[in-house]
User: What shape does this take?
Amino acid sequence: MNLLPNSEQSEIVSVIREFLANEISVRRYQDEELLGRSYSASLWQQLVGMGWFGISQSESIGGSALGLVDEVMLAREAGRQLVSPTVIATTAAVHLCTAMGNEPLAQQLMTGQKRAALALAESLNIEASTEANNLNGEIKIFDGENADFIFVCDGHSSCLIKASALTDRQSAACIDESIALELATLSATSCEVLSKESSLVNILALLLAGNLVGIAEAARDQAASYAIEREQFGKAIGSFQSINHMCADMAVTAEAAWAQLAYAALAVTEKMDCAELQVASVVLLAKKAAIDNARDNVQIHGGVGFTVEYDAHLFVKRYHVYKEILDAFYECQPRILSES
Amino acid sequence: MDLTFTAEENQFRQQVRDWLHSNRPSESRPSVADLSACREYDLAWQKTLAESGWAGIAWPTEYGGRGLPLVQQLIWYEEYAKADMPPGGSESVCFVGLAHAGPTLIYSGSEEQKSFHLPKIINGDAVWCQGFSEPSAGSDLASLRTKAVIDGDDLVVNGQKVWTSYADVADYQELLVRTDFEAPKHKGITWVICDMKSPGITIRPIKNMAGNTEFCEVFYDDVRIPLKNIIGGLNNGWKTAMSTLSFERGTAFIADQVELEVDLKALEQLAHRTKFPNEKTAISNDVIAARLCEMKAEVNALKAMTYMSVSKNMTQDLPGPEGSVIRLFYSKLSQRVTQLCMDVLQSEGLVLSRVPGAANHLIEKYLFRYSATIGAGTEQIQRSIIAERILGLPKSR
Ligand SMILES: Cc1cc2nc3c(=O)[nH]c(=O)nc-3n(C[C@H](O)[C@H](O)[C@H](O)COP(=O)(O)OP(=O)(O)OC[C@H]3O[C@@H](n4cnc5c(N)ncnc54)[C@H](O)[C@@H]3O)c2cc1C
Assistant: This one.
């Protein structure tokens, strides 16, 4: 048992952290041109170049053969800089393809020839609809422009559906202005790849939770550095105890969610009996940690925090996107209370 | 990173399980109303543990420990908590000795001090208490005023301590005294081992809100303590005290943290069988279920944090400020767990005891947990430590 990242893991994380901070820091959204473009083709090539989408895949198909825990650590870094949710979708899609033995498609996704976007379909029952050769319904797609597939999960089944099966695609303004939201109608007869394995549900939930933990941590760090730098009444606002202690609570909240994230990823990797319970626990805690810290971060920034020029608001908004995506397929309570 | 225990660790776990299974004491611990009986019981149990090699699992072998990694100690606590045994955490009179006096001695004591005291702690031959807090020095511990002057080979101590848990059943005390009144407040303090049977010590128990008298006021009237009992050097006591507090916040409560998982399981079962107005049972109530669900997730996170901190503490001699993160998370959560328990109990929670002397331990636990965010540093002090020492924020005092 060892819950500390080893030196290789710490090294990977610090390289990725630095890369994301330099290349696509959350600050990028201050450039209004970039709003609605959390996905970009050039970024995609860089992520592909780093082997992002094959971190935990076997070397025989071009992956790095690291673990799911490494993958969620990357998700956490992506969350800190509000990287596009399409990264989550494509990572999960690679898992789906390898689980179903579709290695050629897995490789196309890993090498950037194909891309999947996350989609939220509230009342879709994938299994029943595929049996009836009739997958249809209202759907919301995130950063799906030019994506080849949409990734949909209903909590039991996970599938990739060709983007060409979407009709009436219509751009809409998303509460999170960094994301390109589309509303569409799904009218497919079949999925490209489909699996009923619960491990895929766990992986998608963990990737989303990882991003939420990243949001909680980024908000904590942003709040702490502003509390050190901003002065009022002749001293740093961080020396006022109400601010000082709010930052401490943010640290506790983030730490608990991070520890649980690591534990849950390992429980899934090691196929422990409690894996479901552990994943549901981190989903519940990561959602709460992200919104609590994002809210406190706005508050600690005062007026600045309320402007669009500063990025504090984006953490709040991205939380809502991930939370709704999770809630549409993943219920925590039955998973947590069923084990007694 | 991994969650797998090695074959050796699993074997150790099995040995612990087997031993606990066949060695559960036939009598339960006496009520805390009779502290000397508790002392006798806890020491006898400690002796039994020591005889079978279960005491001082992670302590050095030179002083009677097993010299095993901290993870084995964690395994012991996990199995112990599940096995329904006598109190093994902070409730035991052996707690201070095992959880922070001992580790402080291991970290800073002289050879002579270590070889005299550590085996006594391990073997259940001595009870320790902590004489840090004073009436006007609580959170601001460094402002303590209990005075000690050097006279020949002794320190002569005058003053008062307060909230000293188990003082009236203790043999030794971790005592902080002021030995230099001219120096800045952190610089004139000395950490010394006080023999509680020394002439000049008066102890007055204080009743707490859970109805018990574990903690006491302690008065010192010309109490002579040999200079050789000083740990870490004259006037260097603040540093030694900080190490004691690091152990107290970093590793001392692992047993309590692990126990909370067992408590919550029991609460969940209680919620499944307790009748609730307009519902089948408490668990069918949406609000109760949602609260329980969140707490279960948090108890899982507590375990993950405990594992993370054990992993970290296997690589360092002294726990770092991250101990305060767990302490704060644990103490708040443990209070919410017992509070939910009261809501599940409903009006049964008003009936402290039907028969004199046999209090409902769930209610007692609820009341006692109010101290979790006060003892070992209040929640406010833990927040300040986290903000300053982990996040690098300026001092807020
Ligand atoms: C069950 C129990 C057992 C104990 N056992 C022992 C023992 O064995 N040995 C021992 O030495 N001590 C023991 N203590 C004492 C404990 O360490 C002190 O109670 C604690 O340090 C707080 O000190 P205080 O009670 O004087 O409260 P105070 O320091 O007076 O605090 C009162 C309130 O003010 C807040 N406060 C104080 N300073 C600040 C600040 N700078 N910023 C914000 N808020 C602040 C506190 O958080 C608290 O809410 C025990 C306490 C309890 C409850």
In short: Chain A touches chain B through 50 residues (CB under 8 Å). The pocket of flavin-adenine dinucleotide is lined by residues A 241; B 129-133, 138-139, 163-165, 215, 371, 374-375, 377-378, 380-381, 397 (CB under 6 Å). The first strand of chain A starts at residue 116 and ends at 120.
